[in-house]
Amino acid sequence: MALFFGVIAGLLGGLARVSPPAPLRAMAAAYVSVIRGTPFIVQLFFVYYAFPQLGVQVPPMVAAVGCLAVYSGAYQTEIVRGAIESIERGQVEAARSLGLTAAQAMRYVVLPQAFLRMLPPLGNEFVALTKNSALVSLVTVQELLLSAQLIISATFQNFAIYLTIGIMYYIMTTVVSTGTQLLERRLKVYV
Amino acid sequence: MERSVSAVQPMLQARGLSKRFGEHEVLKGIDLSIARGEVVAIIGPSGSGKSTLLRCLNLLERPDAGEIWFEGACITDPQVDVNRVRMRMGMVFQLFNLFPHLTVLHNVTLAQERVLRTPRAQAQERARELLSKVGLAAKEQAYPNSLSGGQKQRVAIARALAMKPAVMLFDEPTSALDPEMVQEVLTAMGELVDEGMTMAVVTHEMGFARRAADRVVFVDEGRIVAEAPPERFFSDANSDRVRQFLAKIPG
User: Fold this and answer.
1) For the CA atoms of B50, B55, B61, B67, what is the dihedral angle to 10 degrees?
2) Domain B1-88+166-251, CATH number (from 3.30.1380.10, 3.40.50.300, 3.90.1210.10, 3.40.50.1000)
3) Please, are residues A67 and A44 in contact by the beta-carbon 8 Å criterion?
């Protein structure tokens, strides 16, 4: 879920970073700068523990998914922007010279090519996101790590349980990275 | 083949065109007019502003001063929809700029479908016609990266022609090609000339300028310094600067 919202945030952020209106670009730049410049755990605690002081109670699950998505989205914004800017200027020029609008050139010419270039770094980012999800146990969301700790407090099987969840995280990240690699290979037909 | 050049109203005209990049003044007041059916070769040393001139004509670069008139309308007017103007002007680039993620066929249909709203079947039919015209019918399912430079440039020509442009702009179309591929591109361009296409060609191919152009325009340091029909231009190269330049170019 956080992965899904993170991708949306990254795509919107990345497009905003290369869009013509300066305020939009500045907002996206500020978003990336603030989120990347502060630790995830501080952002998470800020939303979960500090917002209530302003009278906003955020349910743990919402805080967890929201913070993960916003955090990952900032990194993905930069990935999307980098990929878009790596497409040769001649591509847009050729598209515009045929009468395509700037938006059409982005949609049909730049983004499909940029998407392939963003896949490898995006794969990394998905893996990082999967691992960061362990941190939301700290706001009582019962994910993998918290469940493990609950079991340990009942059984004292530290070694076996931590080894098991380590393997489970490894399996998850492997699935994610293999998925992006397969997608990359399928899309790469034209290179 | 006999070609008619209309002198009534220019198809494309630049008036007092100026363009600067920062401190550097690339175009210093260019006046150029191209009649319907006319082929103009634009030559000159590198950095003289000839490519910038061409890119200003279809507004890929916005001129800082001066006007451009196309088919009777002033297209430098900010009110004008540049996309409508550009779909009437085909452009072929030095580095081809084919869309690598699309097949050859799709390269030629994309703008037909998205800009002209031509139904797909019809767009493909026109694309196949044009591809066989440039000798690449067999390559329609290939991706551009599997083609040679000469083949890429011929696809680029077909892609531009698919929009049924009123004028074709060529920006050094053979400069990035291996020598043995130059001819196939020049042949495709020659066919266009024979069909009466209006063309502006920035080129270093003096042979093409001599054979195919109605007029040769020599640009140096942002100005047009000489302008004449090829037979006159090459025989009595009228300034020292032109003679110097021609002496350095083979052919």
Assistant:
1) 80
2) 3.40.50.300
3) yes
State the smallest CA–CA distance between residue B165 and chain A in angstroms. 9
The C-alpha angle B145, B149, B152, rounded to 5 degrees, equals 65
For residue B159, give the 3-state DSSP assignment. Answer: helix
Contact B34, B20 (CB under 8 A): no
Alpha-carbon span A91 to A110, nearest angstrom: 7
Domain coverage including residue A44: 2-190
CATH number of the domain where residue A11 is located: 1.10.3720.10
Q: Edge-to-edge, what's the strand order for the sheet holding B10-21?
A: B24-35, B10-21, B65-70, B73-74
CA-wise closest residue to B185 among B101, B102, B93: B93
ipTM, two decimals, is 0.90
Q: For the structural domain made of B98-164, what CATH number should be given? A: 1.20.1580.10
| Residue recorded with tokens 């800009």 | B115
- Euclidean distance between the first and the last CA atom of chain B, given in angstroms as a whole number: 24
Residues 6+ apart with CB under 8 A from B131: B104, B105, B108, B137, B139, B140, B155, B158
Q: Quick check: A95 and B99 CB within 8 A?
A: yes
Residue type present at position B195:
E
Distance in angstroms (rounded) separating the CA atoms of residues B89 and B116: 13
- Residue that the structure tokens 């634009």 belong to: B42
Q: Report how far residue B117's alpha carbon sits from residue B114's, in angstroms, rounded to the nearest whole number.
A: 5
Total domains in chain A come to: 1
Between these two residues, A32 and A143, which has the higher pLDDT value? Answer: A32
Write out residues in chain B with pLDDT < 50, as ranges.
Answer: 1-2
Taking only the tens place, the pLDDT of each residue in A122-169 is 999 999 998 888 888 888 787 888 888 899 999 988 999 999 999 999
Q: Do B93 and A189 touch (CB under 8 A)?
A: no
Query: Which residues does B contribute to its contact with A (CB < 8 Å)?
Result: 58, 60, 83-84, 86-87, 89-91, 93, 95, 97-102, 110-111, 114-115, 143-145, 156, 159-160, 163
